[in-house]
Design goal:
- This protein has one helix at residues 4-27; strands spanning 34-39, 45-53, 56-65, 69-75, 82-89, 95-96, 100-104, 109-112, 123-131, 138-142, 161-162.
- By secondary structure, the protein is mainly beta.
- Strands 2, 3, 5, 6, 7, 8 and 9 form a seven-stranded antiparallel beta sheet that branches. A four-stranded mixed beta sheet has the order 4-1-10-11, with no helix packed on it.
- A hairpin with a 5-residue loop joins β5 (82-89) and β6 (95-96).
- It is elongated.
- It starts with a helix and ends in a 14-residue tail after the last strand.
C-alpha cells in the first residue's frame, strides 16, 4: 500500500506549514500595552487620569479598582513618558494626589484643557506624576500609605506608590 504513504507525507507537510503560518501570524500581532493601576490598598479606589493628548492636555475619569484588583486607565502603547493620576479612597476618604492641577468632576468625564477649571464648571484637582521611563506599558502598584490623608507630608516610612521596577517615584523618596 504505497499510495497511503505519500498522502500521509503531504498531510504532515501541510500541517507543519499551517503551524508555521499561524505562528508567524500571531507573532506579528502587536503586544498588548497599557497603563494599569493595581490597587493593593485595603479599600476600593476611584482613579482619574491626565495626559498630554494630540490636541493638548486631557483628563479622564473615573475608573474603579476594588481592593486587590487592577484597572486599565489607558489602553494601548504609552506614547508619552509622563502620565498624571489622582486616586481617591472611596471607603476611608483621603486621596493620593499631587501638585499638577487638572480639571475633574464627580461624574464620569473627559475634559480637554487644564485652564479655568472652576470657571468652566469643573473642580480643580491635584494629580501626581507617573514617570513611565518611556516604556510602552506600565503598572503602578497602589499601596496603603502610613497616613492616607492629604493634609500632611509623606512620612517616608512607607512608599505608597511604586512602578514596575519597585523604585519610588520622584518626590516619594524620603529626604536625606
Amino acid at each position: 500500500m504505497s499510495s497511503g504513504r505519500p498522502l500521509h507525507l503531504i498531510r504532515t507537510i501541510l500541517a507543519i506549514a499551517g503551524l508555521v503560518l499561524a505562528t508567524l501570524a500571531f507573532a506579528s500581532l502587536p503586544a498588548k500595552a497599557d497603563l494599569r493601576v493595581c490597587n493593593e490598598s485595603a479599600n476600593q479606589v476611584s482613579i482619574a487620569l491626565g495626559y498630554r493628548a494630540e490636541k493638548g492636555w486631557q483628563s479622564e475619569g473615573w475608573w474603579v479598582a476594588p481592593a486587590s484588583n487592577c484597572a486599565i486607565v489607558y489602553q494601548g502603547d504609552l506614547n508619552s513618558r509622563f502620565f498624571y493620576l489622582y486616586v481617591a479612597d472611596d471607603i476611608g476618604g483621603g486621596a493620593w494626589d499631587g501638585n499638577v492641577f487638572m480639571c475633574t468632576r464627580d461624574e464620569s468625564f473627559t475634559i480637554f484643557g487644564v485652564e479655568d477649571c472652576l470657571a468652566r464648571g469643573y473642580e480643580r484637582t491635584g494629580f501626581f506624576e507617573v514617570d513611565t521611563q518611556n516604556r510602552t506599558d506600565w503598572t503602578l502598584q497602589l499601596k496603603d500609605p502610613v497616613n492616607n490623608d492629604t493634609s500632611g507630608p509623606d512620612t517616608g516610612d512607607e512608599t505608597p506608590l511604586e512602578g514596575d521596577d519597585s523604585a519610588p517615584l520622584e518626590g516619594d523618596a524620603p529626604a536625606d
